[in-house]
Each structure stands twice: as C-alpha cells, then as structure tokens.
Amino acid sequence: MLSRCRAAASSLAPSRSSCRSVHYVAPGGTNPPPVRVQRASRLRGRFDKGDIELFKEICGQTTDPSRYPLASSVAKNVVVYDGNTIRKSLAASSRGETRDEFMAEFHDCLLQGPGVFAIKGCMPDHSVLDRANAAFRTIIDRERRESGVKGDHFAPAGNNERVWNSFQKHAVEDPQGFVDYYANEVLDTVFEAWLGPGYRVTAQTNIVKPGGRAQQPHRDYHLGFQSEDVASRFPIVSQIASQLLTLQAAVAHTDMPLISGPTQLLPFSQHFDYGYTAYRHPEFIDVFRSSMVQLELAKGDAVFFNPALFHAAGDNDSTDFDRWANLFQVSACWGKPMESVDATAVLRAVWPHVQNLAKKSGHDAPGVQALLKAICDGYSFPTNLDKDPPPPDGHCPPTQLDRAFRALESDKTTAQLEEVLERYEQMRLP
Q1: What average pLDDT does the segment 155-182 reach?
Q2: Which of 193, 246, 308, 316 could be disulfide-bonded to 270 (CB atoms 3.0-4.6 Å)?
C-alpha cells in the first residue's frame, strides 16, 4: 500500500522529477544508446489539485479487520485492542512468541495500515492514574505560582494546562506512583514494536478545560514542529523516514466522551509523503476536518499513532469537565528526544521503590524490565571510546540500562548506584 501511494505521488508530479542519461561503455568499445533513468526530486514544489485528490484517496481507505486478528475490533478505521487480553497473552508460557505476534500487528498498523490503534484498559488500575493526577496537579499549581502561563503546541497559550517533562517531574514528585505507572509491560511492548530496543520516553501532561478549542491539525515531532520553510529543506526521503524515529501516544487520565474533545485522527494520512509541509495549507485542513474521526475513550485507555498521522486535540464543548491526558513522545535510540530527561535524577528518586518491586516480582519480571527501559538510556552512543571502549567480544560499550540492571541484581543501595552512574557519565565525557 505504501509503495503504491508513493508511486502514485510521483506519477502525479512528473515535473518535480528530473532525468539523467547513463552511459555504459562495453568492453569491446561499443556504446549503446543512453539509458534514461528517472530520478526522484530531492525537494518538494508547490501543491496542486492532484495532490489534494491523492490525499483524499489515501485517507479514503478502509481498514481491513482480517489484517489484525489479535485485535478485538475496528472502530472508525482505528484498530482496537483489549488490554486485558494482551496482558494475559504476555503472561502465558509462550510469552516471547506471543509478544512478537502483537508487536508485528502493532508495527504493521502504524506503518502500512491506518497508522493508529487504541488499547482499551491499557492502564487498568485507576488508583494509579488518580495518584498521577494528584502529582500533576501539585506540579501545575507550583509552576503557575513560580512561572505563570506556559506556551503550548498548536494551541494558544493559557487555554490548556500542561506539564512539560511530566516524566521526570512525576518521578521526583511521587516516586512510588511513578514506579506503579511505568512498570507496564503493555507500554513496553508497543514502544519496542515501533522503535526497537533502547527507546527513550518523554511525556507531557495536558489538561483541556471546558471551552478549550481544538488544535490546528498537524503532524508531530520531529519535522512537524519545524516551520514549513525549515521542513521543506529536508529531502523528501528524510521526511518520510523521520516518522520511524518517534511514536506518539496518549493515555486517558479521565473518561473522554466525545463532547470533551478526544484526539481528532485522520487514519491513513501518514501515507502522504509531503504531509510535513502540507498540513498547514487550507485545502488539506479542509480534508482533515471533513474526514477525521474521534474515539470515545474511557479512563485508562490509550491511543498510539504514527507521528506523521494528521491529528489534533479536539474541542472541549462540555461545561464542567476537564479532559486529562498524559502524552508520550517516545524516541528511537538513534533519534533526538524532544525533551531532556535526567535519567540519573529519575533513578536516584525511584531506586528504593524499583528494588521493592523487583523483590516482590523478580528482577526479570516484565514490569521491572519495562520500568527500567523507560527510565534508562539503552544505547551505547555517543560516548568517549578512549575511556569507554567496547568490550573484547563486541562493538558497543555497556549502556546505562545494562548498569542499572546489574545494580539491581546486586542489590546496590541508592548511594552505590549513584557511584556507578557517576563513573559511567565520567567515562562518556570528552
């Protein structure tokens, strides 16, 4: 499907491609006629009617339920999974094989399919969400007193309440609540399905108040946060590839009835190659508004989507209901996360609670692994290879994640862990 869409995009705009002549000299010295080779344009020109029609065609597709046999349903072209089913499957004796099957479906949905899926009951313990909400409220009130109104993405400042870097702030404000929240093997399975090992988690809490207006439809980080002028300077193939570096997600911290404005989504729109420059244009906005869908979510449900999917937070048309969500932007290990997270500070804050969880459930328990993978840097680079050389049997020095797992297995205290992490940081410095 993806290659078909891209082939169609090229055929609609032949003037944006150029041709070059390739000459081949045979060993005997004879020269055959030049071969005309089509070369795709590096950059993108103006949009025309054909682009709009192609965009409509791409977004007019229908999700095939038979492609996702592990899902519980398809609603408004969004693939829907049941969190309890996933957890039971991951806990079964064939966990590795079953996990791979779920990961394959998640990845296919995000890349080749509609680009979005939901997991009902992704966070089943509402007391964990209530505790997180209390921590976020404390942080919001403190930051408002100290800093005033903050800016927002794709919405006017002051309309919503937002906690930037809620990931680290949550850990410092309520370490036990943070551990309960991120010891979630379902999240880990989804994140790794799209991004592979070593992913980095960042999170931002967003509260949309009654009367809060919808965002402008957009694509997300990386290129979605750049101006159109800057985005247009990146080669088209780089724009397409950038969607593989990030995963977007939203966990509902309250119920989200339609009147409260859950996220507006345009399934399949990630297949339009030029969307990072197109989403600001009125013609594409009109298509979005006429074709987008919204899913009513219950507290604890989560939505995951390709960052190239056109989307927007919706209008909160209620009169007395604040819509709470924790928004994830999870980065591949070789991408640059949007926010700087001090993993050492997070580990220092939560370490005794990590140890307690490991003692109760085992060091290798999926929840413990998910928690440490969310916190730690699981990639070896960049580093100082003079001070932090690769081991004799490999090319990659041990990661912060490796060291944290070893510290957990040897039951190191918080002070001992800090010594380990300090040595690790010093080895990586120039």
Answers
A1: 89
A2: 308
Q: b vs e for 335-347, b when ≥16 Cβ sit within 10 Å of the residue's Cβ?
A: bebbbebebbebb
Query: What one-letter code names the amino acid at 412?
Result: K
Q: For the residues 45-66, what does the mean pLDDT come to?
A: 94
Gap between the Cα atoms of 205 and 225, Å rounded: 18
Q: Which two tokens stand for residue 66?
A: 């038979």
Question: How far apart are alpha carbons 152 and 141 in whole angstroms?
Answer: 17
CA separation for the pair 239, 61 (Å, rounded): 22
Q: Is 220 exposed, middle or buried (0-12, 13-18, 19+ CB in 10 A)?
A: buried
Q: Is the pLDDT of residue 344 over 90?
A: yes
Cα 329 from Cα 321, distance rounded (Å)? 25
Q: 160: number of CA atoms within 13 Å, CB side?
A: 25
27: confidence class by pLDDT, cuts 50, 70, 90:
low
Beta strands in 111-199 (DSSP E): 116-120, 160-163
Alpha helices by DSSP H, 362-399: 366-375
* b/e map 278-290, b = 16+ CB within 10 Å: bbeeeebbebbee
* Alpha-carbon span 49 to 238, nearest angstrom: 24
Query: Which residue, 275, 168, 293, 163, is CA-closest to 220?
Result: 275
Whole-number Å distance between alpha carbons of 41 and 45: 9
- Write down the residue that tokens 């093997």 correspond to: 185
In this structure, what DSSP letter does residue 297 have?
Answer: B
What mean pLDDT comes out for the span 130-146? 96
Cα separation of 117 and 57, whole Å?
A: 21
What SS3 string covers 300-318? CCEEEECCCCCEECCCCCC
Are residues 269 and 307 in contact, defined by beta-carbon separation less than 8 angstroms? no
pTM: 0.88
